[in-house]
């Protein structure tokens, strides 16, 4: 039976969701534990460090990892070579970014300094671990990624338990526990994954795929990166505790984000295979992703809405009171992100990087200006509603972009089919 049949896809998709459950689960677990164990200012510093990590991770995935999913190698040896070169470049990108984080740690004061110090020391190996995950999926060996992320979660639980028992939980130690577990998991996977580092060919993978990675990186800078900038704006306008409140509410929707991200990492290579047979089937898959995930976001909001104060504090600790104020706009933003995930999966499956950048002309100004202005004018509440409004505005343009990508893909394949028919 072909592995491209529906029955062949199911194990890969299941492994993708399970791995993302573990991967995002480590971040979700960290946010929940930090919200319960830290003061508001300490939690805000922790959340700011994690937001910064997500920015670095997004750029690294764009430049190194995503090409592994959409440009499949010709065999196991070729795929292992590609994974090795991509992992090396990811590690080097982390090494380049780390001094900047350490500089922030030297200039900042209070808990923010410690949080960025811990992140700066561990970032290169964290990016390596994530890139090896993508390489495992590209090689159709998702169990290796699952093992790595399971190691991360288990070590993280052990470290958090030790901090709780010793009473030494701070922004510094919490980031160090989370990131330290990730670095060990990355080294573990590197050792047992048959993928070595190749410093002699540094940045060759990045250069060879810059046509795709460069556009993805620019798209990320205009999209998710801009969203993270709003966190820094909110710090200046409303303080670190406001960032903690917004991140706390977003963390409460973590299970939905886990499902969305898990579906994405598994469905992009699957979508590429499906598109070769039928663009209509790809569209059907993207719509199913959007509808299913948006319903999951709505259900999560209803669950959180009915919680009383004591139940909410079991999840987010001291941050629950402030986070509850923005549950509705954050829930609407989560639904919009779920709808967006369907279009994004299709666009990336079609390698339509040009369409991504064209769409950013209409989405980036709104994504940057609306949340920033709303945060300046109305503080935490305004920032949350500004983010929700901008994400829904963006959805219209993303689905429009997907439609254009499908039409272009269909035209190109029709030309190829006619040429092959003439040659035959």
Outline the structure in words:
The structure is a single chain. The chain has about 425 residues and is an all-alpha fold. The chain folds into 2 domains: about 1-215, no CATH class; about 225-420, no CATH class. Helices cover about 90% and strands about 0% of the residues. It has 16 helices and no strands. α2 (about 40-70) packs antiparallel against α8 (about 210-220) and α8 (about 210-220) packs antiparallel against α16. The longest helix has about 70 residues, at about 355-424. The chain is globular, with a radius of gyration of 21 Å. The two termini are about 30 Å apart.
Strand content: under 5%
Q: Give the topology string: H per helix, E per strand.
A: HHHHHHHHHHHHHHHH
Number of domains: 2
Are there runs of 5+ residues with pLDDT below 50, and where? 1-5
What kind of sheet is the major sheet? none
Helix content: over 70%
Structural category: mainly alpha
Approximate shape = globular
Number of DSSP helical runs: 16
Distance between the termini: 28 Å
